[in-house]
Design goal:
Elements: H1 10-20, H2 28-34, E1 39-43, E2 46-49, E3 54-57, H3 60-63, H4 72-84, H5 97-109, E4 116-120, H6 123-140, E5 148-152, H7 161-166, H8 170-173, E6 183-186, H9 191-194, H10 200-218, E7 223-228, H11 244-254, E8 258-262, H12 276-279, E9 286-289, E10 301-305, H13 307-315, H14 329-344, H15 347-364, E11 372-378, E12 381-386, H16 402-413, E13 416-417, E14 419-421, E15 424-427, H17 435-458
Parallel strand pairs: 3-13, 5-6, 5-7, 7-8, 8-9
Antiparallel strand pairs: 1-2, 2-3, 4-10, 9-10, 11-12, 12-15, 14-15
Bound molecules: 3-[O-phosphonopyridoxyl]--amino-benzoic acid.
């Protein structure tokens, strides 16, 4: 058999990739023409590609490598577990030590009475679980008509049929006949784009009250749950106005529905607390977790469930749901080791008290850049909105995402992974990033923004819609 080695020429790797590998969220034919960037190794916050370039990964992979790359303790934990018990399932009245130990640890870390975990392998799967769990819960309570889940436009909850339906991404719904039945979307709290003449505070209330109106219009006896990310990640690091979450919480308390916080990105330190729900004082019945749970070293996700929902479901007989790899022992062992490191090295506290504020001070100064209309940051997730007219918060005349793509390309050229979502630029670096690396990140980000500004003015793209 051929060995796929790191030492093959980049062009050969790219040709094989183009011939046999279908990439997620990618125009395959277009990528095949230019060839994918091949990442060969990583350490700390730095990726190395097959041409030997060192790139600062300000996205933690896909928002997941919270403790940074190259932590051999996790590799050792995986190897130990593979030798001892590589696999056994948790169906049919069996269990194993890693699943038990991780469940107990999660119950300890999670706020309030979120004391129970249903394991999945990803955030998408966990959100599929949540749909079934919420509907089954109400059914067990004698209210089988409470089936509708309310979520938000431009929210992201995964790519399975359920996850993508909960998500409010129009381009995803346009493919494959989504959303599935009984999912209802309300507007997002994105003040910069949709706030109009309202103050951020007024706008936050207006958007939150859309939930109350939807519950009223659909009927409280038909609505099972509301799901949202504490801070929208994939939607562009949309930090909600301060009035938003308290009003959402009030509405959920006033009506008989479940509140599901999707903590796939916000969980495990990203916002400067263990969970985004703590940062925003949200009291969910269920939390979706994945990504930072294992820092991406092994696939794992889950639903953290409160006492009342867990008891109702447990008392209702079989819950006919589960995945072969629910509670996979190797993933659980890796997650446990990851959580040990986060706790022992006080990584969350360090984000909250030291590196987070250090990054925030520099990031917020980007609002003075001629291209930037808004700079937002919570913990270690941040965004800037690019605009041709700050005062009017105007969009560009060019097709949405054109300027973002230019900026992302300048970042790539400057060895910085900073993503674009439309014409918004976003970062979510490993939580272990040092102040010295934050300086490098900011230097490359500013250089890339300067170059984008020059480029789009030269090309006549610095124009409002
Ligand atoms: N919920 C949230 C809030 C997420 O961010 C998922 C669920 C789904 O998790 P899995 O593990 O099934 O991917 C996510 C995933 C992007 C991007 O482009 C974001 C995610 C995944 C892929 C790309 O920002 N988030």
């Amino acid at each position: 058999m051929n060995v796929i080695s790191n030492h093959m020429p980049t062009a050969d790797l790219q040709a094989l990739d183009a011939s046999h590998h279908m990439h997620p969220f990618t125009a395959g034919a277009e990528l095949a023409k230019k060839g994918a960037r091949v990442i060969t190794r990583a350490d700390g916050v730095t990726l190395t590609d097959s041409d030997g370039n060192n790139i600062l990964d300000a996205m933690s992979g896909l928002w997941c490598v919270n403790i940074g790359y190259g932590r051999h303790e996790l590799a050792d934990a995986a190897a130990r577990q593979m030798k001892e018990l590589p696999y056994y399932n948790t169906f049919f009245q069996t269990t194993h030590v890693p699943a038990i130990a991780l469940a107990a640890k999660l119950a300890e870390l999670a706020p309030r009475d979120l004391n129970h975990v249903f394991y999945a392998c990803s955030g998408s799967e966990a959100n599929d679980t949540n749909i079934r769990l919420a509907r089954h819960y109400w059914s067990a309570k004698g209210k089988p008509d409470k089936k509708i889940i309310i979520s938000r436009k431009n929210g992201y909850h995964g790519s399975t049929m359920g996850g993508a339906s909960l998500g409010g991404m129009a381009p995803m719904h346009a493919q494959g006949g989504l959303p599935i039945a009984d999912i209802h979307h309300i507007d997002q709290p994105n003040w910069f784009v949709e706030g109009g003449e309202m103050s951020p505070e007024e706008f936050g209330l207006e958007r939150a009250r859309q939930l109350e109106k939807a519950i009223h219009d659909l009927g409280e006896d038909k609505v099972a749950a509301f799901i949202a990310e504490p801070v929208q990640g994939a939607g562009g690091v949309i930090v909600p106005p301060e009035t938003y979450w308290p009003e959402i919480q009030r509405i959920c308390d006033a009506h008989d529905i479940l509140l599901i916080a999707d903590e796939v990105i916000c969980g495990f330190g990203r916002t400067g607390n263990w969970f985004g729900s703590e940062t925003y004082d949200i009291r969910p019945h269920i939390m979706t977790i994945a990504k930072g749970l294992s820092s991406g070293y092994a696939p794992i996700g889950g639903s953290l469930v409160c006492d009342e929902v867990a008891k109702t479901v447990n008392d209702a007989g079989d819950f006919n749901h589960g995945y072969t790899y629910s509670g996979h022992p190797v993933s659980c062992a890796v997650a446990l080791e990851n959580l040990r490191i986060i706790e022992e090295e006080q990584i969350v506290e360090n984000v909250r008290d030291n590196t987070g504020p250090y990054l925030a001070e520099k990031w917020l100064q980007l609002a003075d850049h001629p291209l930037i209309g808004e700079a937002k940051i919570v913990g270690m997730m941040a965004s800037v909105a690019m605009t041709p007219d700050k005062a009017a918060r105007a969009a560009f005349a060019s097709e949405k995402g054109t300027i973002g793509m230019h900026c992302r390309n300048r970042c790539f050229a400057n060895n910085l992974i900073m993503r674009h979502v439309g014409d918004r630029m976003i970062i979510a670096p490993p939580l272990t990033i040092t102040t010295a690396d934050i300086d490098i990140l900011m230097e490359r980000a500013v250089k890339s923004l300067d170059e984008t500004y020059d480029l789009i003015r030269k090309e006549g793209l610095y124009k409002a819609a």
